[in-house]
Design goal:
The protein is an alpha/beta fold and about 500 residues long. The chain folds into four domains: about 180 residues, Rossmann fold, CATH 3.40.50; about 45 residues, no CATH class; about 110 residues, Winged helix-like DNA-binding domain superfamily/Winged helix DNA-binding domain (Arc Repressor Mutant, subunit A); about 80 residues. It has 23 helices and eight strands. A five-stranded parallel sheet has the order 2-3-4-1-5. A three-stranded antiparallel sheet has the order 6-8-7. The radius of gyration is 25 Å and the shape is globular.
Length: about 500
Amino acid sequence: MKTARMSASPSADVCAVLPGKLRTPDATDVIARQRLFSTLDELERYPLLWMADAPGSGKTTLIASYLAARELRHMWIMLDPRDSDPETFVHYLNLAAVALEPRCRGQLPELTIEDRRDITGFARRLWRTLAEHLGHHWYLVLDNIHEISDNSVVHQILRVAADELPYGTRLYLVGRSTPGRSYVRSLANHNLVLLERRTLRFTLEETRELLAIHARDAEAPTFLQLSDGWATGLILLLAFDERGDATPMNIDDTSVQHVFDYFASEVFDRLRGSQRLALLRVAMLPHASLSMAESIAGQAHTAAMLESLVKRNLFVDKRSGKEPVYTFHALFRRFLRDRARRQIPTSERTRLSRVAATLLEEDHQLDAALELLFESSDHEAAEALLFRHADDYALQGRFSALLGWLRELPRTRHDTPEHLYWSACCTSADDAMAAETLYNAAYERFTECGDMQGRFLAAAGSAEAVVYRGNDLRKLDRWLDLFESAPQAWL
């Protein structure tokens, strides 16, 4: 069993290479939409800005290009459903802060289980500490804010930011949905401003500017009518030249994926067979460095293909760093994953999932690796990966995330010694009695397996639970001989 090791800097190796979800999209070759830049300038007095519109409306591109044009110091987090767990959100926020200002390392609070009892108090400490170390005039972009569940306390942490951040510091909350009821007070107090839907739709002049790059600005009225000003629609129409039978897109939240899939299939089917297969393979990775993309695609032309898609704005963005990272637009990745399920045999998809999971593990994208393995029902590989890194989750204080993954395993695996032990670790602060029971069960199973170190760790956890409860310390007598005989290296 891999033991829960102690470390003064548990995430130091992760900080060495910035995860793809914390990198800002490259805005080098995109149109500077001055109309919207001016709007963002005018709204600068609001500490929180919420931008909501349909997928593919150009929200991410707008913010990335604005930050680049104004040369603003910023952090970027591409959110996913796992960030609804506040420990996970705070963990990545701290990584982003260290990347922006290395002196933040070791200075920012991590959310503990005890802090959950006073989230508002913790949030005040968090934002004040960030302001102390980052100073004034920095921006935090939370892309895909709709991925955070409505009942997550992450929203409470964000609302506190409006009261604690210094003037000149702003949070951009970017997603598909408008603010929930929990933000009513922030709106009423003018701490939060909502950029209205359709604000991002292209105007006729902006459409002409986009088409001028391709020497087709004379067609702007037709493009605008067919796309309804939807940024993704314009790109699709450019890629799909034969528009004789095209009808207006009439984009809304329910139709957007259907419309995208129709046009994307026309573009996708025109690629060479080897290119199509490479795309289907690379799309298994939520974020991929060039070396990762080439490894899973297994084709020499992968780099050229990805760069071509980036330059043509065909739903792949490039994020700079020590090694560039490529990310598919959510609509395009969903389209490709659906195609893969229909075109790649199950056995081959399972093999590719394991290859992708290995690449993600090596890149410290553990959540993404586990999600991929569970999606393919490869529980054996998922279990092995989870227990290889369970102590990493514990050291980061991400017990809720760890417990969530443990529960994803089949119930037939819930009585293994490792599962019992880590379930106890995740439960100990909230329910010491339940944790003691789980530790004792883990102890018995480790004993049966002959795992003496696991046996010792389970006993130590049980003793800690007994002390935490404090109602019957005589239970400690059971463990004294074991602790006295334990090797010094285990203590």
